[in-house]
Amino acid sequence: MRTLPEIPATTHEAALFIGRFQPLHNGHLVLLRQALATAPRVIVVLGSSFQARTPKNPFTWEERAELIRLAVGEADAARIQFLPLRDFYDETRWVAAVKAGVARLLATAEDRKAPSIALIGHFKDATSSYLRRFEPWQLIAAERAPGTPDAQQVRDALFASAELASADDRRAALGALTAVLPHSTLAFLRSWISLPFFNALAAEWAALKRYHEAWSQAPYAPVFVTVDAVVQCAEHVLLIRRAHPPGVGLWAVPGGFIEQRETAYQSTLRELAEETHLHLLDTTMQQALKASAVLDHPDRSQRGRTITHAHHFDLGDRELPEVCADDDAQSVAWVPIADLTSMEDQFHDDHFHMLDHFLGLTKGE
């Protein structure tokens, strides 16, 4: 592996390392040890926290924190603090949340200048540009070492093992990851694949794999356009449980793909009617439309690059209209808005954040 640049003597009080660690691999561990060599305290920001288990985010933030503790050993683990953060799918808001969380962890009762912080990271691709947004923290950028694994490849190998007949065969197949994972991570995965939810996640992974393969021969990388309806009424919001992968059984707002001869607004009303049988007068829906937004974060959907036109309707304090699940919905329900934050880890893709965008669910946090 390529030797990392020497770390000059510093007076940094803390080093910061940001990642998703889905799961922790040797590339992560190299940078983590660099952070530990830089400052007496290390803060690890765990991205994609509080989400439902999916093929892209199979491990909870608590599991990922434990993987890090196991890999660095007891003495170094005692120097690490963890900051679990949701993604927000809004870089400006996410950067502000990182800064606020770090300030909270490093706060002391003494009135003194802000602590000196080093940010450890490397520029993987365009998505790493956020590393430049943390001034005045010192950015220590490391090059990606040859042979450093990609977490997606690790997850692919993990879920592909589900196709093997026995649990012993699955655990043996993971041996191919010995060169890219810490021993503690590999041992964790061999036990983790025996947990009850693994087969369901593997089935979702296989469905997504077929979906991506179906579009792999397109002359250009596909960009999908969808619509979504956030319908509010009497302090409730209309949600469905998804009937098909990805996200089977997870909560979502009603929506789907835009049709060729429809406007985004027309497709929104059609998908809403098809999935929930909410039938109100056109004038009622027009008057209830409060806002719309284009949500286009590149990572918002497991399907691939998907841009959605989300519409927020507020029906006021009227009696909750009757609804009935159909089409792509397993079930449908009017859910109290006050309950949504406790359901964050039960939502499909970025749908909790879509609700947050219009309803301000996390505004006070």
UniProtKB/TrEMBL annotation:
Ion transport found in the keyword field: no
Ranges in a coiled coil: none
Signal sequence bounds: none
GO molecular function, one term: nucleotidyltransferase activity
Keywords (A to Z) from UniProt: Nucleotidyltransferase, Transferase
Short name of one Pfam family: NUDIX
Record-linked PROSITE patterns: NUDIX
Residue ranges of domain Nudix hydrolase in the record: 214-358
Protein's name in the database: Bifunctional nicotinamide-nucleotide adenylyltransferase/Nudix hydroxylase
